[in-house]
Amino acid sequence: NVLVCSFGGVGSKCLLKGMMPGASNERLNAAHTHRRNPPTGGEPGGRTLVYVFGNPLNAVVSFFARRESITELHGFDGKSGKGKNHWVMQHCRNLATEPGPMTQEWDLPRFLDHGEDLFRLEEHFDNWSNPPPGTRVLLVRYESMWDHLPEIFRFAEIPESLIRRFPERRRRGSDWRDLPDGLRARLEGLYGRLHERLVAQPDVRIIGDGVSTAFERPGRTS
Question: What are 116-154's pLDDT values in tens digits?
């Protein structure tokens, strides 16, 4: 009985599939969101709230890569295929933000030329890491969630015996470090500050309603 949220491109679907092995696509879709704000007073129905965050540089590269191809990791149906030109515009709607001048023809270089975070990723993270009174959220770093599955499952009240069925860690298909030097520099210029903020966060943290409990893997490095 969980609701998993993220700003996209940071493995929230992977986490949810691991928490609900064998669930139908309908159930998985109902338990996943990119909503901009956590619910006031907790999620109706008593669902536990989990927010997944991760490297925004990789996330944005992933957004635009989906214009070219979609892999089995990008959805709940396990299908891969050609990309969708309109995907980035659709994701703006998922995040409840206006795309501004962006059109579906924009690729990553054109987006970086514009020089504005039209996805409002930092605001999205800030909203979920400062939940309203009566709401508790488990914040989970995508890159190290495999090191904290017991804490995650306990918070969500999921039997820890299901951890053995959790998907194995994979190398990301979209890595900002593979970009040409010029694109890397422009991407860092737009999202570097947010990336530094997220690197400084604990791996896993329960936040809200007067509680702040952090769990971190010993010796973690950025």
Answer: 999 999 999 999 999 998 899 999 999 999 999 999 999
Residue 69 pLDDT? 65
Measured CA to CA, the distance from residue 80 to residue 74 in angstroms comes to 8
Task: Say what the pTM is.
Answer: 0.91
| Phi-psi domain of 49 (left: phi exceeds 0; alpha: psi -120 through 50; beta: other) | beta
Q: Indicate the average pLDDT of the chain.
A: 89
pLDDT, tens digit (0-9, with 9 covering 90-100), for 48-103: 999 999 999 999 999 998 877 656 555 556 565 565 768 899 899 999 999 999 99
And the tokens for 141? 């770093």
CA of 90: how far to CAs of 43, 67, 84, 175, 219, in Å? 25, 11, 10, 22, 39
Q: From CA 203, how far away is CA 148, in angstroms rounded?
A: 8
Cα 91 to Cα 43: distance, rounded to the nearest angstrom: 23
Please, which residues bridge with residue 82 across strands? 69
DSSP 108-149: HHHHHHHTS-TT-HHHHHHHHHSPPTT--EEEEEGGGGGGGH
Interhelix angle 87-94/56-65, rounded to 10 degrees, is: 130
State the sign of the Cα–Cα–Cα–Cα dihedral 97, 24, 42, 150.
negative
